[in-house]
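Problem: given the chain below (489 residues), write out its structure.
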Amino acid sequence: MKIIGSEWRLGHWFAVASASDAYYVKLANKIHDYIRFAGLNDILTEFEQHNLAKLITFYFEDVISDVGIWRAFVAAHKEMYGKYLPFYDVDESRYYVDEINPEDICFLIWMGVQQYQKGTFINPENPGLMQLADKLYTLLDKEFENAPINTELVEKMYKPEWFEDFYLLKDWCAQFYRSAYLLQDEREWDHQDEVDEEFSKMLEDDDVRDYAVVSYLAICSKIGPLALTVPEWAQYILKNKGMDREAELLAGMKCLPYNLYLLRGYDADVLIVESVDGIVYTIDRSSMDSLQDDILEKHNGLVASLAFYDSGNWQVCGTTSWIEDAEDFYKMREEQEEKKASDRELYDKLLQVTGNDPLIYFAGHEDLMQWLDKHIGFAPDFVAPEGMKDEGNIAVFILPDGQLSILPDGALYIKDERNPYYNPDWAKRKAIRLLVEPEMVSKEMLHYLLEHRMLPDAQINSLQGPERGRQLIQENIDFVVRFSRKYKY
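Solution.
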């Protein structure tokens, strides 16, 4: 499976074609040959090895051409964690952000392998991966002085006019979201996770819905190895390029998810709308294409995502849907207020029972059901999920909305003086799953466990011994979670 020019350009912002493309495509195929003979067939498919070759080559082109994506990553990681890279012992006196480094290659190979693993965490110091990194670094080091600079890409990406208008910037961010080599993930855009399902249904046309989703995700979705939004990534890139004003503008950018608004008034320049939770927003009318007064006279409900950028007013981000009757708005407001009151009452009631601790532990399913029935009460026809009946050592976390995050076997992993079921040996073997399997545990529960250092045994196997396996995870635990969960961080 050869890498070809048209495929290579898709990894460039706006698929920019450059005179240097032929060189990098040839290099990518050479790197692909190294990877094919590195013995990775047990953990990577041919397609995934193909993508790993492109990842390494895009990094090389990035450093040579100062595209800025890699420098943004190491700058952000340094700011967040006090070091350039996770896992690897980097001698900062010999680490050069404008050159290739052996540790960079090690990390990228690990990343290119790990992103395809489900429920498994690959040791960043895996000898096979480290050996491949040595070979690829030697190859790229020889190429470094003669590799061509992709001037076309860099010149187009950082023209100041991209940052002077919200809609030009949104296009810039959308292209970044789709193409930036280090920031891509392999999931499909999930309407229900990222754009509330109720509002997504109001956008009936598939093309309109896709445009709505992409517009929102380009601004708001957490992507890449540090689970940052595109505007957050861009701030680091722009600062490194001396574009401080543009970085400041992006720092002040805000975006709201799709919601239903009540139209309160309008004139030739602006619309005044009110959100379900009572906040009033002023929207530039020019952000809605060809909006006629007769539409506003006949409708008083607006479904939209709003964004704020370098102006006194809000802009529409994506598409809009108008609703004739405000009944849905008032119904939604009433339901939301009732739910908030009910959630708060239930949350306070449960915390009173637990002594203000949101974590509770149960030996098994029957104990949990008895506790819930006593303190919440079940309807007479309630039937517990079949799959829960055989579960034991259950940890339960009370969420702020009064809902419960239930983690079977979780009590075995959690070190807490109130937890009688904690098992250090079990935790050493299995606690890593909580960090790398997003579906196992809610983000609220996981953040609570990390904040209170309740997963001290999470570790991986290491040829250097269990202490090194524990050190690799514990010293990089927040990064591991960001990398694994991304938009669910």
